[in-house]
Amino acid sequence: MFLFLSLSCSFHSSMATLNLSHTQTLSFHRLFSNFHQNGPTLSFSSQPKPSVNPRPISLKPYNSEKLRTCVVALAVKNLAETEEISPENDGTAGELPSGAGVYAVYDKSGELQFIGLSRNIAASVSTHWKSVPELCGSVKAGIVDDPNREALTQAWKSWMEEYIKVSGKVPPGNESGNATWVRQPPRKKPDLRLTPGRHTQLTVPLEDLIDKLVKENKVVAFIKGSRSAPLCGFSQRVIAILENVGADYESVDVLDEEYNSGLRETLKQYSNWPTIPQIFVDGELVGGCDILTSMYEKGELASLFKK
Ligand SMILES: *[C@@H]1O[C@H](CO)[C@@H](O)[C@H](O)[C@H]1NC(C)=O
Ligand SMILES: *[C@@H]1O[C@H](CO)[C@@H](O)[C@H](O)[C@H]1NC(C)=O
Ligand SMILES: CC(=O)N[C@H]1CO[C@H](CO)[C@@H](O)[C@@H]1O
Asked: What family does this belong to (predicted)?
């Protein structure tokens, strides 16, 4: 684990911050240039076994940026140590985290097929389960706590390296030109706003605006946060489900105090429902996350969302 991460950290810096022998550094760079060109199957048999000598670690010159990257990678357990989860048939049920991070999909015979990177692991996995069920058996997920682009890439690379190191090859789904797993990011509509802004005096009550909005749009999800970045687990789940069933829906951020000021409380009165998220279809409240989830699991949503 340690050696592995130190390799992955030093890879990013031409001035290696950790003391690696020349051969190790070289073979590592070769590994990665091969990997990026998607060259022939990688083989490590001729490489010398790195001598594990974790001490002393030379961290000079001190560079907080690099150090941070290393620490972030450490936050995700390595692939071998990560617990395997077997989602239900649709790939959505249970323990899968809806946060950002890295995930690995194994087929039913336990072969790793794909290592992916996602802002919403649960949503990505359920997409795979839907599009290529025959290749999906179980999944490992590593949440990245501070999911900036660099940290996510770092986590993805560390799993990739680990897999390549052990198996000598890139996961089949990550081979170049393989479009089985990577598809276009879902089209993102903007979230709807109830008002032109906090500074404008409303001429009609907020309740009327809500009423108009849910009646003029087939499916409306009132959530915390935006559809591209839901801010609570329930909202995330609702979005994941709506995306998964391919619903053409509108989203409204109840926490947007600039454009939807007062919405959170007014909505609860309007619908007589105490919690957010709330999903409306044809102007009627369907319910919140639990109800939507249960309808989704019973396969009742497709007909509900149909015209
Ligand atoms: C790196 O480690 C080797 C032995 O592991 C040692 O001989 C060498 O002096 C070290 N180099 C640096 C720059 O610390
Ligand atoms: C892509 O990868 C999957 C395995 O994840 C494999 O079954 C499929 O045949 C590959 N497709 C191509 C075009 O290589
Ligand atoms: C070689 C390679 O990295 N292929 C793909 C593996 O999966 C990631 C994540 O989706 C893609 O970005 C890579 O292109």
From this structure: Belongs to the glutaredoxin family. CGFS subfamily.
